[in-house]
Design goal:
The protein is α+β, with helices and mostly antiparallel strands. Helix content is 27%, strand content 18%. Belongs to the RRM MRD1 family.
Length: 502
């Protein structure tokens, strides 16, 4: 529904897109010239513009291939998903570190300084990423939302900007396209976050600013994750602890039917990080916005999230609820009080069953345990390692966060690396610190992908069993002949039978 840029009111028209032409035709035949809220609807066929881009000709000359690619890339901006939402320009990282620590930029990138400049740059990027994450958290940003594929229509992440870009420059880029609700520029000045009041203005700004040149860099834009901010969305007002009531019976889970007691305070986990509640028995009709609005008035509220999954029948359709979610709080006392008040609360006809999430920290059940920040081992797998990186580079990068026990960089028969490495720390605490710090770091232009290694995968006996190889006990060894020892002195017939059975 397009809005007037001055009054922010509807223009009296709307666009509706169907996935199938037959459905659009049926809607036209049934709804055209029908009354809707006192007005007569008039439906027309709209022009479908899918990634259309124009090639301008000048004086009989066509654009170059580079110009054509730029126009096409600009037209399709924002339609692809990108996991590296904290991407930062390497030159901006080096400039930021050099300026703020009052050192020469050449000292960071000098290959004759005794250590690899690529490792220095990776460590500098890691430091700035940690600083940026701390700043975003202080501004009400939920960092856990960055792992979700759901995208916001009003939040834009501005990446690859040069060092020294100010908040006023970011505003000058986006304000001509709509009204801004907030602009965040971390102290490092290597990225920015822009939030619009209206989604159509954000889409207009996205198309206009994407891949524009700012200083000596080209701006990359990414749609921010859904539910990125803890603040209340614009235009949404809540009046307190309310629920939908109806004459239908309340739906409960088996634990509630059996009268399972609510945990008392002395039975709750004594872990300082126990600030996240696991909410079960959610209605599949409950939306993320409604779920958050129900509990955001609670003391020490931090975030609320419903676990989503892609629709198996429609790859391009909206994500579906998995029937459970998480509510986080800023402290343990707030979580304990909320547990009592939320237990059995009726939301959309379902009685909620609430308990602490796992060990008292947020756990994403739809996510592989190997990619979580907590582990049961001090060993990890580093994937997407550059082929130019050496074992010394990997050791130098990871030993900044703890004492290393071993570093393995597997190679092929021609001595080329395979693109992954195995890291083992002395303690699990040091491994978790390194995992959390380096999970967004780039080394020689490649984003390092970290996963926890299973303890059993390091056991040689387990590996032998997986390979189907038996050792001892009369089991078969592949590719080898077996030796039989026949005792013909007694019970020859029985021994022969046994040997044949063997």
């Amino acid at each position: 529904m397009p809005l007037d840029p001055k009054t922010k009111q509807s223009k009296g028209l709307a666009y509706v897109t169907f996935t199938k032409p037959d459905n659009a035709l049926a809607a036209y035949e049934n709804l055209d010239r029908t009354s809707f809220q006192g007005r007569l609807l008039h439906i027309l066929a709209a022009v479908d513009r899918k990634g259309k881009y124009e090639v301008e000709d000048g004086e009989g000359r066509t654009n170059t291939l580079k110009q054509d690619r730029h126009s096409k890339r600009k037209a399709t901006a924002g339609k692809e998903f990108n996991w590296s939402m904290l991407y930062m320009n390497s030159d901006a990282v080096a400039s930021s570190i050099a300026d703020r620590f009052s050192i020469d930029k050449n000292d960071i990138l000098n290959p004759e300084s005794g250590s690899n400049p690529a490792v220095k740059l990776a460590l500098a990027e890691t430091h700035i990423i940690q600083e940026t994450k701390s700043y975003l958290e202080s501004q009400g940003v939920i960092l856990s939302s960055f792992s979700s594929r759901a995208r916001s229509d009003t939040v834009v992440l501005v990446k690859n900007i040069p060092y020294g870009t100010t908040m006023e420059q970011i505003r000058e880029l986006f304000e001509p396209h709509g009204e801004l609700s907030r602009v965040l520029v971390p102290p490092a000045g290597t990225m920015a976050v822009v939030e619009f009041e209206e989604s159509n203005e954000a889409a207009k700004a996205f198309r206009a600013v994407a891949y524009r040149r700012l200083g000596n860099s080209v701006i990359y834009l990414e749609k921010g994750p859904m539910g990125m901010f803890t603040g209340e969305p614009s235009g949404v007002k809540t009046t307190g602890h309310e629920s939908l009531t109806s004459n239908l019976p309340v739906i409960k889970v088996p634990e509630q039917m059996t009268g399972e007691a609510t945990p008392e305070e002395e039975d709750l986990p004594s872990i300082t990080g126990g600030t996240t509640l696991y909410v079960k028995n959610l209605s599949f009709a409950t939306t993320q916005q409604r779920f958050e609005s129900m509990f955001q008035h609670l003391p020490s509220f931090a975030f609320a999230r419903i676990q989503m999954k892609p629709d198996p029948k429609r790859s391009d359709g909206p994500r579906l609820s998995m029937g459970y979610g998480f509510v986080g709080f800023k402290d343990v006392d707030g979580a304990k009080k909320a547990l009592k008040s939320m237990q059995g609360f009726t939301l959309d006809g379902h009685a909620l069953h609430v308990k602490f999430a796992g060990r008292g920290v947020e756990e994403d059940k739809g996510k592989d345990d190997k990619t979580g920040s907590k582990s049961k081992t001090a060993k990890m797998i580093v994937k997407n390692v550059p082929f130019e990186a050496t074992k010394k580079d990997i050791r130098e990068l990871f030993r900044s966060y703890g004492h290393l026990k071993s570093v393995r960089l597997p190679k092929k028969f021609d001595s080329r690396t395979r693109g992954f490495a195995f890291i083992e720390f002395i303690s699990r605490h040091e491994a978790e610190n390194a995992f959390e710090a380096l999970r967004h770091t780039h080394l020689l232009g490649r984003h390092l992908v970290l996963e926890w290694a299973e303890e059993a995968e390091q056991d040689i006996e387990v590996l032998r069993k997986k390979a189907g190889v038996g050792f001892g006990g009369g089991k078969t060894l592949p590719g080898r002949k077996r030796k039989f020892e026949l005792d013909l002195g007694k019970d020859n017939a029985d021994d022969d039978d046994d040997d044949h059975d063997a």
